[in-house]
Amino acid sequence: MAASTPNQESSRPNSGPIPTLNEIRERTQQVFGVRPCLWQLKVAEALLKGDKDVLCTVGTGMGKTLGFWMPLLFRPGGIQIVVTPLNMLGRQNASSLAKAGIRAIAINSETATPANFATFHYRAIAVSPEQIMKPGGMFEKLLKDPLFTSRLISIVIDEAHCLTEWGEFRPEYTELGRLRYILPSSTPLMITSATLTAFALTSALRLLHMHTDRMVIIRRSSDRPNIKIGVKKIKYTLNSYTDLAFLIPEGWKPGHYKCRTLSPKAPPPELRDKIKWFNSDMTMAYKEAELENLVSGETWGLCTTDSFGMGMDVADIVLIIQWRATCKLATLWQQFGRAARNQELTGTVLLFAEKDHFDDERATKAARKAQREKTQKRKTKAAGLPASLRPAKCMDRSSPNKHMEVPSIEANEGSTASHDGGNADEGSSDEESDDETYSSGTHLPQAAAPCATGLEGLLKAIGNVGPTTKQDGRSRKRQKRGLDPGVDYLINAEIRTGLMCRRKVFDVCFDNGAAGGNLPFAV
């Protein structure tokens, strides 16, 4: 932990007797109406002790927010600050706490008024990185006020994977490390997320000056057993979206009167308000109303960035589709994790990926290229050209698996060269290609032979994932168009040696096998 902070109180007036786990459970059940799990009790206990920082990694929708709200029940004058990436998420937390009789507020551009900061009226404060780290802002003054900081239980960095993923376009995330130099050394920090890879976790701990010898570590698996994972090869032209035709309700026929004028430019008047825009320029009143409309079904969908929905309490989503493999594995699991937050439901998540990303397509393409080169070599030799004038042999750069076992062309009969995955307006319309969705546990066709690079390759790929550097010789924009290594292994997991299961890719990337243990490294 960083030394030389402005205030060095060895004890906090907010401290008090530490309740037992049974006492925490009973009180929580009485106030919030839910029975907390053991790991949630340990989070609350660690924050109440206040002598160490806290790291909590747990799956999406498993209730990590309850863990850092429970301490408020045992510190009547205590204050919890939660740094959250989304204003709506903070607003939702404030609403749920108000029902339990805890005064809460979500600080944003509309509520960051002097009146709301003048008194210590609110005990739960949800705030964005931009607000808490604003130079000369109200929060900077509060965090330097000994009377205020003496009441702080902790500062929680929720959705901590954003520290590394969002730092480029929200630089205030990288400024959160300065909290160590502003706060008293006795104020603990807590970080929590469902999708912290080893690199993201190491970066977050270093940024916030958190050290494993002064940290309570609570690690749970990020796996969601009630979510079925599937990957489907895009069969038709990308811009036709024909692969998504199964979403059209059964019984609908072309020309149906309700849909005869349906188009992006001129939908029927009665449907024009069913899908709406949702972004940071909208008012908070609009956002709250549209979230309620989405949950109730009044609104069918929202056009928004992938940040919407992160941690949002919409419990009955049963189908999530990612169209094209354009994001990182951690982002993909965040999106998939929005399914079936009600543990009694079963959700289905599907990744529709471009054909170029599948090993069997790569193998077929490589085999055809080899055949073309062989034919060209034979023609060149027959023409009597000297060796110096013959076409040079080129390495196939389309496949990252140079030692992949190449199936015969006959085994892939019916496949065609796939489209360019980087162009959404182009694509293959081959209707004879494979149309089978491979979900976890299904059998693969014999033509899809296992690759030589499986689990070992995945571990190496994860270890090499880091920040973009100029040494790569490519621009950042070009790098972002490439396929994320983790997503590559997810797409081809069921035919790669040592994996044979797509769920295992997430387990390896988020180190789910180490749940309940310590970190494999020191910071």
From TrEMBL:
<dbReference type="Pfam" id="PF00271">
    <property type="entry name" value="Helicase_C"/>
</dbReference>
<protein>
    <recommendedName>
        <fullName>DNA 3'-5' helicase</fullName>
        <ecNumber>5.6.2.4</ecNumber>
    </recommendedName>
</protein>
<dbReference type="InterPro" id="IPR001650">
    <property type="entry name" value="Helicase_C-like"/>
</dbReference>
<feature type="region of interest" description="Disordered">
    <location>
        <begin position="361"/>
        <end position="447"/>
    </location>
</feature>
<dbReference type="GO" id="GO:0043138">
    <property type="term" value="F:3'-5' DNA helicase activity"/>
</dbReference>
<keyword id="KW-0067">ATP-binding</keyword>
<comment type="similarity">
    <text>Belongs to the helicase family. RecQ subfamily.</text>
</comment>
<feature type="domain" description="Helicase C-terminal">
    <location>
        <begin position="210"/>
        <end position="393"/>
    </location>
</feature>
<feature type="domain" description="Helicase ATP-binding">
    <location>
        <begin position="45"/>
        <end position="214"/>
    </location>
</feature>
<dbReference type="GO" id="GO:0000724">
    <property type="term" value="P:double-strand break repair via homologous recombination"/>
</dbReference>
<feature type="compositionally biased region" description="Acidic residues">
    <location>
        <begin position="427"/>
        <end position="437"/>
    </location>
</feature>
<dbReference type="GO" id="GO:0009378">
    <property type="term" value="F:four-way junction helicase activity"/>
</dbReference>
<keyword id="KW-0547">Nucleotide-binding</keyword>
<dbReference type="GO" id="GO:0005524">
    <property type="term" value="F:ATP binding"/>
</dbReference>
<feature type="region of interest" description="Disordered">
    <location>
        <begin position="463"/>
        <end position="482"/>
    </location>
</feature>
<dbReference type="GO" id="GO:0005737">
    <property type="term" value="C:cytoplasm"/>
</dbReference>
<dbReference type="GO" id="GO:0005694">
    <property type="term" value="C:chromosome"/>
</dbReference>
<feature type="compositionally biased region" description="Polar residues">
    <location>
        <begin position="1"/>
        <end position="14"/>
    </location>
</feature>
<dbReference type="GO" id="GO:0003676">
    <property type="term" value="F:nucleic acid binding"/>
</dbReference>
<dbReference type="InterPro" id="IPR014001">
    <property type="entry name" value="Helicase_ATP-bd"/>
</dbReference>
<feature type="compositionally biased region" description="Basic and acidic residues">
    <location>
        <begin position="361"/>
        <end position="374"/>
    </location>
</feature>
<dbReference type="Pfam" id="PF00270">
    <property type="entry name" value="DEAD"/>
</dbReference>
<dbReference type="InterPro" id="IPR027417">
    <property type="entry name" value="P-loop_NTPase"/>
</dbReference>
<dbReference type="InterPro" id="IPR011545">
    <property type="entry name" value="DEAD/DEAH_box_helicase_dom"/>
</dbReference>
<feature type="region of interest" description="Disordered">
    <location>
        <begin position="1"/>
        <end position="20"/>
    </location>
</feature>
